[in-house]
Amino acid sequence: MFYFFLSIFFFFFFKQKTAYEMLRSLVGSEMCIRDSNMSQNNLGELKGRGYSGGSACIELNNFEPSAAELFYRPAAATAASTSDPAARMRLARWPNVGSVMAPSSGDWAGLVGVWNQTVKVGGVVTGQLEAWAKERDGWMHGLWTWNWADSHRPVLAVNPSLQTVDLGEDDINRDVSPIKPASSGSQGGHVYVYNYRSELDSPGEYFINREKATLELMPPANLTNGTYHVSRLQSVIVATGAHNVTFHGVEIRYARGVGVVVEGCNGFVLDGCTIADHGMMGLNISGGSQSGIMNSDVSENGDTGVALFGGDRVNLVPSRHFAANCTLHHNSRWIMNYAPSVFMGGVGQTVDGCEIYAGPQIGVFMQGNDHTLSHSQLHHLGQQCSDCGAFYAGREWTYRGNLISNTIFSSLDSIWGSPPSAVYLDDQLSSVAVDRCTFDHVAGFLMELGGGRNNRFTRNQVLGNASMHFDARGGLGSKCVPGIVSNFLSRVPYQSGAWLKYPDLSNILDDDPCTPKYNVISDNVLCQGASEFSGLDRSQIESWGSTMENNTAHATCS
To answer: Are residues 366 and 347 in contact, defined by beta-carbon separation less than 8 angstroms?
Structure first.
């Protein structure tokens, strides 16, 4: 039996105060004691959570906290260090994970038979099924229908003789059913099972017996003399209505829910901090103004790394929240899809000088107006998805005035064989400018322009592959069926006031609304083997009222 130690945390709560400053310190992980009060009553429950239906990950009540989790802290770690993904602990599971650093399709099993919510999992032997049948509270995480929509389902029963597993419901109401068997060339049908003691057989795995309040583990490989920590708090820091608060060099870890909650604050800043190992989001900033995170590391969180939301969309008043000079990586441990490393919502958020990498799906997810992503690097994203992008926004005519500039996209690939796009503008998303960026041998589309308007791809440097996708998926002329996209017009006064600054929006319903007009692809430089934009038909683009011109090819890049 392995004894384990629990971290006791400082809980910071700020409300309607001004001018706080917390200097360099370590929150939690230097204070480790045996906790005799930990029992089955406060270990939490595993729940059927998952993909958010493509909506913003900003409402805290949309994400229930994780159950208690075990984390390992290497002995050499310091308050200023970043997290080591190789030290990640996992609930006992099958198939085992080959490497956190390099995901593979072998981390998943394929469904070989499906009968409603009864499934047969490929590669499972009878002895495993017999062991599962004797245990309770087993779970299955799946990409059930699409490789861009995941959820967790409880295992209700296991039938070893039939080699089947009966699954319960998840908390998701779209895009995760019907469950499909895995098939070459199609999406869905990928799963792994977890929370079975019988699968405790690989370094870095653990199992919690919630009835007995005991924990068993296999230590991470090649790591010794560290400390173990079990999450307990709902959040570590909660700030409501605070002003001019700064945390310097603080390490914030091990909440079951959101690590840091900042609501309605002005000038709340985390500088040189580590926000890691939380059950759900790392940092959620909503409302207020000019709050953010800088010079910090955000990693190993259960879903979104940093969520920035605020401003007034009716009057286009920005909140000016920010993430600057940060590294954001290895997030989305529990929820893989539409749980990005950074979310920008509302009006006027900025992500600048950040390195964003190692994510199963989206690196930056944007909703709203007048946001900026600049001077950043996005790489090794979209690693476990299909039909996805390192940057993603979708389904809105009124998300206007957004800019991606001076940003490098590289090393984007997926274990499912279909590489992600660098920039994905889905389902008539309009008015994103991609300017002065570098696309370094991007295997998928540089940009997927899915029928939107007023988008710009200009003055970019393209190395190697120069594949793009541009369509009129909204329908043309009499075939136009605006649907959801046009319904969103009613949310904002798009024909008056501050909204008149956006060209071609006020009269959109009288201007062939579903035709992808006013897009510009120009003044780009293609080099190192890229000679032209493949997948684009210039004459067709011009027939839609968009422009493609002055794109040049060179043998080498300047």
So the answer is: no
What is the distance between the alpha carbons of residues 153 and 143, in angstroms, rounded to a whole number?
A: 11
Q: What are phi and psi of 272, to 5 degrees?
A: 65, 35
Task: Dump the DSSP string for 183-239.
Answer: -TTS---EEEEE--GGG--STTEEEEETTTTEEEE-PPTT--S-EEEE--BS-SEEE
Q: How far apart are CA 271 and CA 312, in angstroms?
A: 26
Reported confidence tier of residue 399, pLDDT bands at 50, 70, 90: very high
pLDDT digits (tens, 9 = 90+) for 338-363: 999 999 999 999 999 999 999 999 99
Q: Which two tokens stand for residue 509?
A: 């319903």
| Main-chain dihedrals φ then ψ at residue 499, nearest 5 degrees | -70, -15
Cα separation, 415 vs 385, whole angstroms: 8
DSSP H helical segments within 99-200, as ranges?
Answer: 126-133
User: Please, are residues 44 and 68 in contact by the beta-carbon 8 Å criterion?
Assistant: yes
Rounded distance between C-alpha atoms, residue 233 and residue 259, angstroms: 9
Name the average pLDDT for the chain: 88
**Residue 440 to residues 82, 237, 358, 363: CA-CA distances in angstroms?**
26, 39, 17, 17
Euclidean distance between CA atoms 88 and 480, whole angstroms: 49
Q: Which residues of 378-395 are buried (b: 16+ CB within 10 A; e: fewer)?
A: bbbbbbbbbbbbbbbbbb
Query: One-letter amino acid identity for 195?
Result: N
Which residue, 9, 57, 1, is CA-closest to 29? 9
Query: What six digits make up the tokens of 147?
Result: 């490789």
> Which residues does residue 153 pair with via DSSP β-bridges, in sequence order?
140
